[in-house]
Amino acid sequence: MLSLQSNLTEMKGVGPTLAKRLAKLGLIAVNDLVNHFPSRYEDFSHLVSINKLKVGERVTIKGKVQLINTRRSWKRRLTITEALIKDSTGSVKAVWFNQPYLTNTIKPGTEVMLAGILAAGSYGLQLEHPVIEPVARGGIHTGRLVPIYPSTSQLTQRLIRNLIARVLPQVQLIKEYLPTEILKKFNLPKLNRAVYDLHFPSSIEELTIARRRVTFDELLTIHLKSLLARQTLENNQATPIPFAESTKTLVKSLPWLLTNDQKIAAWEIIKDLGKQRPMYRLLQGDVGSGKTVVAGLACFNCIKTNLQAAILAPTEILAQQHWHTITNLLKPHKITCALLTRGQSATSDTASTTASRVKQRLKSGEIDLVIGTHALLQSDVDFKKLGLVVIDEQHRFGVEQRQAIIANRQSAPHLLSMTATPIPRSLALTLYGDLDISFIKTMPLGRQPITTKLIKPGERASAYNLIRQEINKGNRVFIICPLIEESDTLGVKAVTTEQARLQQEIFPGIKIGLLHGKLKGQEKTKVMADFKNGRSPILVSTSIVEVGVDVPEATIMVIEGAERFGLAQLHQFRGRVGRSERPSYCLLMTDSTTPRGLERLQAMTKFQSGFDLAEFDLDHRGPGDLLGEVQSGWLKLRFAELANTELLKTVREAGKLLMAMDNTLKHWPTLQAKVSQESFHPE
Ligand code: ADP
Ligand code: MG
C-alpha cells in the first residue's frame, strides 16, 4: 500500500512523462497530492431530470446513451461528437468539439452522468461540452461539488481529480498534530477528515467545517510564529535613539504639511526609538497616504545618533523610488545614502560606485543610510552599527528574512515595517501578534478623490475619449490586463496583444509602453522612465505595477477584466493614480453580469479607503467565496482571507492557551515544526 511518502511514480499509470508534469506543480509524493487543494469548486450537485432542464442552469443529469457518433466538420479542422442521452422523462442532445475519442470510451447503452449548462444554440437546445462520466465510476467529475485544482496546460482537471480520488484513502494516514483539548474546545474536526472534505465535500456545510479547520491551522501557525518571535525579541537590547531637534527643521523644509496621522505615527515611532528595547512596529497606511516621509524621519533620527539605517524594499523599482525620494529629503543634511540592489548600486556622494564598494563603506560606517532589495539580506552585507531597519511592503518578506537582518548583532536594531495592505484590526492582531501597529488613515490634504466608474462593454468609446483628453492635458494612463490563459503565467501574451490592439486601432498617434515580468531590470527601468517623462504616456502592464510606483502625472487607471481581480488588487491599482492635485479616474472595464461580481466592483465605486474595502470584504462573505469564485487577495494567504471575526478571535484564544501550556511548543513536535517552517507569505 502507498504511504504518504511514496513517490507518485509508484502509482499505476504514473510514468516518467506524467511524473514530470506533476513535478512542475510541486507534486512528487503522495503527500503533495493530498495537500494539493482545490482553488475552487463547480457546483454540479444539482441533479435534475431531463424534462426539467432549463437554459443557463448549471446541472447534472443521469441517463443512458442512446446514440453517440463523431463527424468531421468541413468548414474548419474540427470534429464534432454528438450524443443523445435519455432518462425516464425525456432526452437531450450533447455536443463536444475535438474530442473524437469519446466515441471510443462511451458506448451506446452506457449509463452516464453529464454535468454542464443547457444552451439554446442555433441547432436547438443542447448541452455544450458537458463533463461526462459513466455512472459505474461516477461521482468524481459530476453530480457533486466538483473540485477544480490549480493546474498547468499539460494536466487536465480530470486527470488530477482522478489521481487525487485514488490517493484519498491515504488521507487516513495524516497524523493529527493539534492537542485534543484544542479540537474539543474550539469545535474543530480532525485534520484528516477536513482534508478529505476539502477535496470531495458532500455539501457546502461539510466544506464550511473543513475550511474552518484548515483556516484555523493556517492562522494559528502564523500567530504562534509571531508570538514566539515577540518572545525572543523582548529579550533583546537596543541602542536608544533620542529625538533629534533638527527633525523640526527637516519637517519645516517639506513642501507640504504633515497630516495629523503622519504626525501621530512619526511620534509613536520616535517614542519607541528612544527605548532600550528594540522597536517592533508596523506602519499601516493606504497607498499614497505618505508612509515614506515618516520612515525618512525615523531614519533621520537614527543617523543623527551616529547609527546607520537601512530601508528594504521588495522590488528594484520601489528601491529606486525610495532612493530618489529619500536622498532628496536628506540632501541638505550631509547624509551619505546608498542604493544597493541586484542590478544597481549608487551613492549620493560619488558619481559612480560598485556593489562591493558600497558593502565596504557600509562596513566602515561611511554610509549612513542604505536603500535596497533582497540584496541587502545577503550574508556579506555588514554594517558598522545598524540602528534602524525599515521594511517596506513587509508582507513580501518572511518572518525569517525580517529577523535575519536584525539577528546576530550585539545591539538589535529597531524595526519599522510598512504595509499598504489595509488589514482589519482583528486580522492584524492575529497575524502580527508580534508587532505594535500605527495607522495612517487620512490622505494628504488637497488630494482629490479618485472617480471610480464601472465601464460595461458598450461604453468603451467614452472611456477611450476620456483617455485622449487626459493625454492631451499632458497626463498619463495606466492600463492593466489580467491573465488571459492559465498557461500565460506572466501575462506576457495578454499585455502584448492588448498593447498592439490599442496602438493600431485606438490610439495610433500615441506611443504606448509595455511592462511585464519577463523584462529585465534595465528594460523595466527604461519603460518606466519613458512613461514618467511622457515619451509614452500610456502604459499597458500586467499586475506588476501593483506595488509602489509613483507617477504623479498618472490620472487614469484602466483595469481590463476587473472582475478577475480581488478587491485588494483593484484597490492597489487604483492607488497608482490620484497622487497629485489633478482629478483622476479609475475605470473598471468589465463584462461581468453576476450580481455578486457587480456588487464587489460597486464597492470600489463606493469606498475610497482600503480599510473600508477590507472590512467590506470581511463582512460580505457569500457561499460563492467558499466555492472560490472570488479571490479577495488582501494577503495572498491560502485560506485565511476567508476567516471571519469569530475565527480570528478563536485563533488568538488558542494561541494564548498553547503558549500558557508550553511556550516552547516542544510538547507538540509536529506543530512546533510547522510553526518554525512557516514563512508568512514570501513571494
Ligand atoms: P505610500 O504611503 O503609498 O508609500 P508615499 O509615501 O509614496 O505613499 O506618498 C505618496 C505621495 O504623497 C508622494 O508623492 C509624497 O511626496 C506625497 N505626500 C506625502 N505626505 C504628504 C503630505 N502630508 N501632504 C502632501 N503630499 C504628501
Ligand atoms: Mg510606499
UniProtKB/TrEMBL annotation:
Catalysed reactions listed for this entry: ATP + H2O = ADP + phosphate + H(+); Couples ATP hydrolysis with the unwinding of duplex DNA by translocating in the 3'-5' direction
Boundaries of every Helicase ATP-binding domain copy: 272-440
Residue stretches making up the Helicase C-terminal domain: 449-619
Nucleotide-binding found in the keyword field: yes
EC numbers on record: 5.6.2.4
PROSITE patterns (UniProt xref): HELICASE_ATP_BIND_1, HELICASE_CTER
Top-rank EC class of the record's enzyme: isomerase
Family, similarity comment: Belongs to the helicase family. RecG subfamily.
Name listed for the protein in its UniProt record: ATP-dependent DNA helicase RecG
Lineage: Bacteria, Candidatus Vebleniibacteriota
